[in-house]
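Fold it.
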Amino acid sequence: MAERNEKDTSQLETEHISQEIDNMMLLAKNTRKPFARSWYNNNFFDDGFHLRTISRTTGRIIDRGRAATLYSPRRAIPKASRQIRGMANLMLSQDYVPQIRPEKVTNVNYPQAEEFQEAKQDAKLVAKRVGHWLTEEWNDQDLDIKMVQMVMLTMKNYISYIQISPDPIEEAIKTQVYDAFDIYLMSNRTSIYDSPFIIKEVSKLIRKIKANEMFDKEQLEKITPDTRYASDEIKEAYLTSKFGKSGAGSDSANSGTSRDDAFATVAKGLSRATADQDDVVLITPSSSTGRTSEASEINWNKRRTHLIGSTSPLMSSPRAGMSFGSSVATPSLTISTRSCIFKNITVAQFNDVENNVLVELTGSYNYYEGVHFQAFGNALTGDDAAAKGVHLSGSDENVFNRCTFGLDTVIRTAANYTLAFAAGTANSNNSFYGCNFVMIADADAPRHISTADGGGSALNRWAMFENCMFNCNADLNSGTTQTDVGSFDTIPDAGGTPIFKDCVQVGHTGWANTLTGMKILGAASNGTPLTSYGEAVNPTA
C-alpha cells in the first residue's frame, strides 16, 4: 500500500480554508487532464446527460430526462449508448436478493442440547431479520437502479463512485452515485484511500447559496453562474445552468447571464463587465419601448466593452435602449473610453434636467451604428439654450453609421444644438455616414451642428458628413423654418473643416451662418458658393 500524504486544514484560519480546498481541487483537476480528452470523446455514451439540451431562446440547459428512467429513456439514443445500456442491464439483470447466513453456533459453547438448539434458532431469526432489513433498504435506496448507473458510468469513464454514509439526524443510511467529475482526488494513486484528500463537489442553486446567512454578503455579491461551455470539462459544462426567474430584470436578485435572469439597468451590466475583454452588455427588450430605466448617470469607462440592443436594426427609435430619470445629473451618458461598439440602441432623456446634455463624448475610436440619440425630449429642455444632444469634447476618430440625432416630436425654441463640438478641444477626424439630424422648432434659433460654441478650435483637420439628412419640422406647416443648418466658426478659427458630401437639408433656407466655415461637395469648383446645394425642392410637372 502506497504511503498516504494527508492534507490538513486544521491549522488554517477559517477564511483561508476555502482557498486551500480550491487549490487542492485545481491540483486534482490538473492531474486528470490527460484523461479528460478521452472522457470527452466518449461522451456520446449513455450517461443520461444526452437528454439535456440548450434552449435557443434563453440559453438555459433543459433537462428532458427527469421523467425518464435508466431502463426507458424518453428518446432514441446512439448505438454505442444502447450497447452500454444493454451490457449494464445484462450484467445486472438478475433480481438480486441479499443472503444473510446465520452466525455459526457450535455446541462447545452450549453443552446442553436445548440451549444449543435455542441458540441456533436465535441466530436464524437474527439472520432473517437482517435479510428482511437489507431487502427493504435495498429497495428503498433504489440500489438496483444505482448499480446500473454505476456500471454505465464505469464503462464510459472507467470509474464511478457510490457513497454510503449514515445520517445521524434522520437516523438513516444515505447512498449516492458519483461519476469521475464529481470526486476530486490524486490520479497518481491506485486506491482512493491512498489519496491525500478526497473532495466531493456538490452543485447548489445560486439562490440557495445567496440565501445562506453564513456566507459573507460582500462575497455573495460577486457570485454569478458560469455559463461557458468547456471543451474538456464535460461535467461542468452539463451542470452549468443559469438560475434566475422570468419576468422583469433585477439588479439585486439576478445574475445578468440570460434574458430570464437579466439585470434591470445598463449601469449594473456595465459594473459587471471587465475592461479589455470584449465583454458585451446586451439589452434584451421586455416591453414595447425596450428601454431600461436608469436612475443615475452612466460613465461608460471600460475600454473594449460594447453595448448592443437585441432588436431590429432601425435608424429611428430601435426598440432597445435606456431612458434616464429626472434625478440624473447632466450629462446623462458619458463615453470616456475607447474601442467600444454601440449598436441598435436608443439613448433617451424625457425629463427637464438643468443644462441638459444627453451624451458627452470624451473617448475616441468608438463605433456607433443604429443609435438614436433622443435628446430634447422635454419642452423645457427645448427652451434651454445650454442644452445639447451630443457634445464632443476632445473625442477623435469616431464613426457614426446610420444614426439619428434629435427628436421631431418635441418643439425646440432656444439656440441649442443637436450636435456640438466643444471649443478648444480639437475634435479630429470624426465621420458621420448616412445619419439623420431631426428636430421641430417654433423659433429660428436651434441649430443641428455647432463648431462655434465660443473660443474656436472646436475641430482639428476635419469632420465628415456623408449622405446625411438635416431636417427641421417633419411637417413644414407646423413649425418655423430655420435660416441655417449649422453655426460655424470660419475655417481658420474652427481649427478644422466640416465637410458635407451628398447631403440634403429640409426646412432650412441655407447651410450656415458663414459659408467659409464649411466645405460642400462641388462648392470649390464653382465661381460662387452653392447656397442652395442639397436643398430639397418640389419637382415640376
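The first strand starts at residue 52 and ends at 54.
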